[in-house]
């Protein structure tokens, strides 16, 4: 199946309001702060009933930021972020589905009133995420949920996201990834592809990220995907997960050694601690030895003012590019496995 044919198939499915895919999505409240859950509850009913994400991820330190949502669907995350960036920030959502963009645009005034704004600080653009219509370094933060897995040229999406992101900016990616490759003949199945089961194998993400200029990814969250037996047989028992990662675009000429970093607690909503990934949480006032790669990331990203840095004599090993399936297996063994984010029926 050609790339254009795949893109047309995805557009067609989501223009019929997801009735073809049979996927049912859940909001991952276990990964969200109470104030973020409250904002989701305040979304219009029209937006809530057309939410098809693979797990919400909310960036830190949003006030006044320009944020891009790649594959925004009907705009649920765009509207939440438009509240969190405040009136001096701005959020843009891009999607290739005419129907979902139409729904999103129809709800702008509802959320302007709900957030108490005189002028709404967001917009929705119809377009292909493999060819974003924005100049370089237009955004402080980019988010994406459940879209890149459906793109035929995933590397192209990473490259264009890297281009539009400012140096020091963060890319929060929540998407479907596989433990193994699915059979080639499954790639033409509209349900399998449009539910994201043609996504990147998890262990190739770091390679694509590095090739397109991003840091290696840190795993923030993961939850299972519930796949009907009919499709399990077709994909030869491959496992899939909705995994959430953080990546950054950093200056090329800055590299630092290992360091002891101390979180200042000066990010609103994270005054006591800042969860970084599944293995690391920065607690206010407590120094943590991190390797040179994470030192470079923290000291050259938009989060640099939130940490103090001091020399260290140790050579720490900082985990990253964690295996989401091993993480889910661990959660299951501990009786803490979260419910599936969505079902493929």
UniProtKB/TrEMBL annotation:
It comes from the Eukaryota. Its EC number is 2.1.1.137. The keyword Transcription regulation does not apply. GO terms for molecular function: arsenite methyltransferase activity. The keyword S-adenosyl-L-methionine applies. InterPro entries: Arsenite_MeTrfase-like, Methyltranfer_dom, SAM-dependent_MTases_sf. It catalyses: arsenic triglutathione + 2 [thioredoxin]-dithiol + 2 S-adenosyl-L-methionine + H2O = dimethylarsinous acid + 2 [thioredoxin]-disulfide + 3 glutathione + 2 S-adenosyl-L-homocysteine + 2 H(+); arsenic triglutathione + [thioredoxin]-dithiol + S-adenosyl-L-methionine + 2 H2O = methylarsonous acid + [thioredoxin]-disulfide + 3 glutathione + S-adenosyl-L-homocysteine + H(+); arsenic triglutathione + 3 [thioredoxin]-dithiol + 3 S-adenosyl-L-methionine = trimethylarsine + 3 [thioredoxin]-disulfide + 3 glutathione + 3 S-adenosyl-L-homocysteine + 3 H(+). Residues 63-192 form the Methyltransferase domain. Keywords: S-adenosyl-L-methionine, Transferase. Signal peptide: none annotated. Belongs to the methyltransferase superfamily. Arsenite methyltransferase family. This is Arsenite methyltransferase. It comes from Pomacea canaliculata.
């Amino acid at each position: 199946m050609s790339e254009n044919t795949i893109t047309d198939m995805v557009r067609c499915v989501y223009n019929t309001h997801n009735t073809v895919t049979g996927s049912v999505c859940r909001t991952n409240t276990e990964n969200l702060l109470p104030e973020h859950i409250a904002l989701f509850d305040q979304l219009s009913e029209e937006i809530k009933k057309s939410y098809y994400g693979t797990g919400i991820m909310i960036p830190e330190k949003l006030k006044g930021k320009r944020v891009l949502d790649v594959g925004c669907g009907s705009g649920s995350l765009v509207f939440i972020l438009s509240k969190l960036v405040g009136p001096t920030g701005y959020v843009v959502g891009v999607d290739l589905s005419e129907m979902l963009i139409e729904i999103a645009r129809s709800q702008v005034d509802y959320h302007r009133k709900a957030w108490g704004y005189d002028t709404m600080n967001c917009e929705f653009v119809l377009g292909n995420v493999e060819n974003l219509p924005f100049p370089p370094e237009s955004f402080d933060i980019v988010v994406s949920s459940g879209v890149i897995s459906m793109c035929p040229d995933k590397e192209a999406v990473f490259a264009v996201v890297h281009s539009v992101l400012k140096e020091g900016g963060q890319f929060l990616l929540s998407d479907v990834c596989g433990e193994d490759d699915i059979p080639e003949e499954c790639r033409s199945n509209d349900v399998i592809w449009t539910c994201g089961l043609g996504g990147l194998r998890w262990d190739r993400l770091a390679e694509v990220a590095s090739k397109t200029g991003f840091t290696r990814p840190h795993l923030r969250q993961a939850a299972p995907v519930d796949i009907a037996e009919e499709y399990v047989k077709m994909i030869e028992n491959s496992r899939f997960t909705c995994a959430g990662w953080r990546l950054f675009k950093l200056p090329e000429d800055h590299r630092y050694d290992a360091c002891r970093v101390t979180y200042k607690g000066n990010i609103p909503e994270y005054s006591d601690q800042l969860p970084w990934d599944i293995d690391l949480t920065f607690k206010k006032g407590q120094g943590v030895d991190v390797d040179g790669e994470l030192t470079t990331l923290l000291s050259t990203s938009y989060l640099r003012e939130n940490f103090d840095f001091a020399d260290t004599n140790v050579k720490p090993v900082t985990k990253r590019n964690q295996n989401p399936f091993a993480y889910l297996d661990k959660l299951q063994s501990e009786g803490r496995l979260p419910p599936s984010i969505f079902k493929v029926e």
